[in-house]
Amino acid sequence: MALMLVFAAALPAAGALAVWGLRRRPYAHWVGAGAAGLAFAAIALLPVGRGSGAWLAADGKLTGGWWHQLSIAWAPSLHLEFSLAVDGISWTLALLTALLGVLCCIHNAVGAEQRAADLLGADRTASGPLQGAPGTVATGGPSPAAGGAVGAPAGSAASDPLGVPAGSVETGFPSPAAAQVHGVPAGAAGDGRESPEWRSPVLTALLLAVQAASTLVFLADNLVLFFIAFEAVLLPMWAIIHRYGDPAARRRAAAKFALFTVAGSLLMATGLFVAVADTGTADLGAIILLGGVGNDVSLLVFALLAIGFAVKAPLWPLHSWLPDAHTAAPTVGSVLLAGVLLKLGTYGLIRVAGGLAPDGAADAAPVLAVLAATGIVVAGLVCLRLPEIKRLIAYSSVGHMGFVVLAFAAGTEAGVRAALFGNLAHGLVTPLLFFLAGALKARTHTGSLGALGGLRLAAPALAGLLGFAALASLGLPGLAGFWGEAFTVYAAAERGGAWLALAAAAAFGAFLAAAYLLRMLRRVSHGPVAPAAIGIGDVSAAEAAVWAPLVAGTLLLGLVPGPLLTLLAEGIL
Amino acid sequence: MRVQAIDHAAMLPLYLASAAAVLALFAGRLAKAAAMAGLAAAAVAAVAVGLGPDRATFAVGDWHSYVADDAAMGAAALFAGLAVLVAALSGRQTGEYWFLLTASAAGGIALAGARDLITLLVAVETLTLPLYVLVARPGRDGAEAGTTFLIASVTSSATALMGAALLYAASGTVHLAGLGPGLGGAHPGLTAAGAALLLSGLAFKLAAAPLHAWAPLVLERAPLPVATYLASASKLGGAVAVTWVVFFGLSDVASAGLVIAVLSVASIAVGNLGALVQRRTVPLLAWSGVAHAGYALAPLAVIMTAAGREQAGPAASAAFAYAVFFVLLEAGAFAALTAVRPAAGSVLAEGTPADRAGGHGPGGRIAELAGLWKAAPLPAAVLLFSVVGLAGLPPALAGTFAKVAVLEVLASSAVWLAVVVAAGAVVGLAYYLPLARALLIGRAGPAPRRYAVAVALAGLAVAAVSLAPQVVLDFTELSR
């Protein structure tokens, strides 16, 4: 079973290489989806034959605790071991990562097939006049209208850096038409909507790379390996935003994302190495079990780690990279950012920072809690005024992560469980919202709340799903978002004293969340049908299939939270 | 007086490299083959000697002037290997070129084994002297580069010699092993002045601030193979010299740690700021190399504090390991760049008219690398991997391991310096990422495809240490 740990991380990595190698083949996307699916299966099998969760001392070494573990020497001089381990906490997050990876790959594959079909249709209409009047080719070429219609997407796809335009290969596109528009500036075709090149298999390869690195972060039992995996997420995600994002904002957003993340992860690395130097081992489980680092460096370690993870989580006031990155990223990029990358921050904060330096965490809890509560309220207020749907969802993440951090800072058992639960719930609900917002933007070519309206009439199923996701996000009882936030407020209030004020602030933030999400629904779904929404298609079967697991998970966590809470309680913290 | 026996086995790599140099001078048309074969033999001999028991020779009492331990032989093999790489990248050159290159590599091998100040300084000079000729391309720019390098080098040599003289005056010995005990009762001001002068002078080779200004200018204007050598083997020489002096000689001298800390922080700040504004490839790598010199020196600074002095061994090992990873990545980047830039012709003969007319060197602008991925996938891949490694990011793990090694030492003894290193690495990303991006994106221009084997081998070396860093970490582990 321990071998499944290796498969969980290695399959997406191998899939990324395979997809990249096969990027000119039409089936490359499905290879990627298959690799992600196998990784999901490998992770889903992990609970089989799991350990009891109790620690045992054998031969002077502590074993157990983890469900499975595996360790291979790599660079002992650097305290680096390729050691993986899994327990209830990391398993749920790894499973979520794999699930989102599969969904994103399928989303890409389906999108690419639709694109191929569209291009085939456009190709036929465009080549019609050519065949009818061959003389025009020599003089003026095809009619400008036809050339433009075909050429715009092909031109931008042809400027793809890594791959070859997927659509053109699949459809046997006439090469003169592509060459003709080769000079179209990149991004000319992508004004206001997602640029078509996001369907390139290279994007799938990058997604799989992010998935592999993130899975490795969740499963790492060695602090140096944890740091390396944490850093490995950066480049593929940077490339996703930089290359496949919204042409207007992607460069700046990608650079901001990279600089913030690296600054955070290097500070985190310093904190990790202080802990390694203090304890003499880099074994995460062993350090947690021994009660963390010594008292004299505990606060230092926690501060360094917390700053590093707070950038990733993100915690106010270190959140400013997030709205830009989310808004600029393609849909699948936003889904992974919200569902996986933010979880790296909270997972690190709860398990690594809290586990390595419990004393420091207790000392720093008030600061963390005040920042988190401020973040909740600030995010709520900002969201009330935001005019763009993706940016609004992105900013709402700051609020949700504020709840998670506040619950962790409260430090009680209820608090830590609320943090872990809220973390997972956010990982299901917000990706669903991003999928829906992406679908909406792809149909209407706008994300502006002012230009939307009447979705309820134009696309009832899409409006219904959006309403469902928004209600889950604002914490309606019975859906996944509720338990985490309710218990956060409870855990903060339980501490009494000044924590009551923070609990009140968090509750006010939840109220603000209801206000801004309902405002969004009113603008998008209700009212007369906006011009942009006229004639748009409703949810397709493929989309429904991609979103169904997220909807089901949201309902499941909302209605039956018990098993998950038990699982989280077994974790090593 | 007893005549002591010389351990010729310990000297074998040096003999082979020196023989190769002499052979190259007289071999005529076979000079290149002779130089490469001799250097390769020296590298193999160094590895063989290194795998055997530690050897030492030229003893005065317990102190040896020449030691062939794992670290020395590892560095020697690296010097020889890098020189072979540069030779493979050089194309057709006259006989003197091969002599000068091989002589410089022999200086590096001698430096690796040197354990007294005189041997060390002479070895550094042997490493540097041939480069005066090699950097000077024909034409005004080349002459300017050569003159700059000559003046900067002579100044720093004089500085280092003055420092060595002061340390000799304070301790009464030139053996590194004797400096520690000898400086125990010495005047602290004299020791501090000696350490400051010696280390600043040696840091010149590493292009650490404040003696860094020659590097961007000389590297930009030197022929690319020579720039490859300057950026890799020559820098390794500086790192080895500083690390040896600090670890074997001055590890009990707090002021030496302070000097290193100043050099390190200044290099990180100056190098990163300088690199931020570069639009040409070689100056960008050169300025960022200044910052990397700062990262490599940083672990040595922990001997400032008493707690840090107990960590001197791991700290010096981390500095050495960082330098090794760094020069491998630099060699990869420069080798790939050499392969894709138009040939500059013979280094010592007349340059092409384009070389003499332009005010810039052969490295070209970063924008000229656009689309290299499509035009020349192999060099582009090696260059990309090296640049990502210099930025310290996975999947180019060589750079990540280097950073981890440095941060692990700093985290335990000097957290503030770790934060400085982290801040520098963040700034580094701001110029490495656009360089990486330029390689991938854009319309490809014509790119020559040369030296495929050399570039592939450089890439393989970097990839190998990325997968098995313990190979490097084993021989960079220093012990007295």
From TrEMBL, chain B:
Annotated Gene Ontology cellular component terms: endomembrane system; membrane
Task: Give UniProt keywords alphabetically.
Answer: Membrane, Transmembrane, Transmembrane helix
Q: How does it sit in the membrane?
A: Multi-pass membrane protein
> Could you list the residue ranges that cross the membrane?
6-26, 33-51, 71-90, 97-114, 120-136, 148-170, 190-214, 226-247, 253-277, 284-307, 319-340, 375-393, 413-433, 453-473
Chief location bin = membrane
Every NADH:quinone oxidoreductase/Mrp antiporter transmembrane domain range: 114-423
A Pfam family recorded for this sequence: Proton_antipo_M
InterPro entries named in the record: ND/Mrp_TM
From the Swiss-Prot or TrEMBL record, state where the protein is found. Endomembrane system; Membrane
Q: Which domain of life is it from?
A: Bacteria
What name has this protein been given in UniProt?
NADH-quinone oxidoreductase subunit N
Q: Say which species the protein is native to.
A: Glycomyces albidus
